[in-house]
């Protein structure tokens, strides 16, 4: 096992990793920008290294600075958290070239899943059900029009390098194909330097269901059920739950096994998430994320497992501490993302926290790097905390969420907390009857002035 791990991240996820290290008797090294000298992750780690100025590209994304921090402190492994360098195959290669261990998948797996066409080809070959569409990339408008005719409209054109909704265009009818195809290509080129696109049947009212998988890198893998992350705004998740309110035990076992078998077959190591659109009782693969996700705590809650501890174990070459038969769902968990943002436009709201009080009690977990008097810097994303509640069933989790939100105090900046109080009054949220478009429609009707 490692003696010392460097955490190449900040905020609540850095704390999450430091906590796992401490429980495992591993020393932790925080890295930070000059804007984060007073950040909680720096205080909580055993050691810290300043790696550069506020701008992410010069600090949290600076590969030389992070490798140097490992060399200075003698850290043997790097946990990337989420975002930043967590899905950068080039970084993984450099880490290995310095005889350090990347706590996460191989550079190859990250590269494969980072290219959406290659990811889909790979998953299809492994028996994972995919959205019907083009067989690989589509190079010309003529070809695109033929595919549109074959699979029927509406279709969606996606950049293979896309992400976060960029480089994605819907063509409702054949008349829209030309501009959708050209716009998706142009966005792929300008955002990612890659104009390759592919085409899928456009699903109009799906849910976003993602399966958590975990592999040992040696041909063994399990699934930890699904999360329903359909409540999103502009491709940012705001409310996530597990299990999915629309998924039966039979469906979970079936799609879960397909996913676990697929990642076992490629010797996948560590945590991964296989994203699906779910409509009319069918799962359609869209993407795979090769990192620990923001919303992992809802899965940890219902399975009573520590996914970060498990990531560290397999990265050190140890076996996984659980098998599929050990993974039995206990109750229901919900996470809400607390962002420092001003409603109704969700504009970032950095500033000084004059008072912070985290809720507690049975079934409540608050992952946050806030403290009284902390100043949220303006340079990074606006996530300032995650409130995760766990109950014996969904109604209990919802009641606990309302109770915990009532206890939470974040003074000094605007937050998304009022949104959650309002959502907990909505019949669709209370019944779990929502899809990927529900929140945007609700916001249009209820919040926008
Ligand atoms: C789709 C889709 C409908 N049909 N693909 C959005 C981001 C990217 N990860 C995939 N996305 C979508 N792909 C087909 N064939 C609808 C979306 C989509 C979406 C997906 C998940 C959660 C929220 C979403 C919001 C808008 C569009």
Name the features.
449 residues, alpha+beta, eight-stranded antiparallel beta sheet, five-stranded parallel beta sheet, 15 helices, binds ligand MV4
Provide structural commentary:
With 449 residues, this protein is of the alpha+beta class. The chain is built from 15 helices and 22 strands. Helix content is 34%, strand content 28%. It has an eight-stranded antiparallel β-sheet with strand order 13-12-9-10-11-14-21-19, sandwiched between helices. A five-stranded parallel β-sheet has the order 3-2-1-4-5. Strands 7-6-8 form a three-stranded antiparallel β-sheet. Bound molecules: ligand MV4. The site of ligand MV4 has 15 residues, from β8 and β13.
């Amino acid at each position: 096992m490692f003696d010392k791990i460097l955490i190449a991240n900040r905020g609540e996820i850095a704390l999450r990793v430091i906590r796992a290290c401490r429980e495992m008797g591993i020393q932790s090294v925080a890295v930070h920008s000059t804007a984060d000298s007073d950040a909680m992750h720096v205080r909580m780690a055993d050691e810290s290294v300043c790696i550069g100025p506020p701008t992410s590209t010069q600090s949290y994304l600076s590969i030389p600075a992070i490798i140097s921090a490992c060399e200075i402190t003698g850290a043997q492994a790097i946990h990337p958290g989420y975002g930043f360098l967590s899905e950068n195959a080039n970084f993984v290669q450099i880490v290995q070239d310095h005889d350090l261990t990347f706590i996460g998948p191989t550079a190859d797996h990250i590269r494969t899943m980072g290219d959406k066409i290659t990811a889909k080809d790979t998953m299809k070959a492994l028996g994972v059900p995919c959205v019907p569409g083009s067989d690989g990339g589509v190079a010309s408008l003529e070809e695109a029009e033929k595919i549109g005719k074959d699979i029927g409209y509406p279709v969606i054109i996606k950049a293979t390098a896309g992400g976060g909704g960029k480089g994605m265009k819907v063509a409702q009818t054949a008349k829209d194909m030309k501009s959708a195809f050209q716009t998706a290509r142009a966005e792929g080129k300008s955002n990612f330097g890659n104009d390759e696109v592919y085409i899928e049947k456009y699903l109009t009212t799906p849910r976003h269901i993602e399966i958590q998988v975990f592999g040992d890198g040696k041909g063994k893998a399990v699934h930890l059920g699904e999360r329903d992350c359909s409540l999103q705004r502009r491709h940012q998740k705001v409310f996530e739950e597990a299990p999915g309110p629309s998924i039966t035990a039979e469906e979970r076992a079936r799609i879960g096994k397909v996913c676990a078998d697929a990642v076992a077959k490629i010797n996948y190591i560590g945590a991964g998430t296989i994203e699906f659109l779910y409509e009319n009782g069918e799962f359609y693969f869209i993407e795979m994320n090769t990192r620990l996700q923001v919303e992992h705590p809802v899965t940890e809650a219902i399975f009573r497992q520590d996914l970060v501890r498990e990531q560290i174990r397999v990265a050190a070459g140890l076996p996984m501490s659980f098998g599929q038969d050990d993974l039995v769902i206990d109750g229901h968990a919900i996470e809400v993302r607390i962002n420092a943002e001003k409603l109704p436009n969700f504009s970032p709201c950095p500033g000084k926290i004059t008072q912070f009080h985290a809720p507690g009690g049975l079934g409540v977990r608050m992952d946050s790097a806030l403290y009284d008097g902390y100043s949220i810097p303006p340079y990074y994303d606006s996530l300032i905390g995650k409130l995760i509640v766990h109950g014996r069933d969904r109604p209990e989790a919802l009641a606990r969420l309302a109770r915990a939100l009532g206890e939470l105090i974040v003074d000094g900046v605007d937050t998304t907390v009022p949104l959650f109080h309002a959502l907990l009054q909505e019949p669709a949220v209370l019944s779990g009857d929502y899809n990927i478009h529900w929140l945007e429609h609700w916001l249009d009707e209820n919040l926008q002035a």
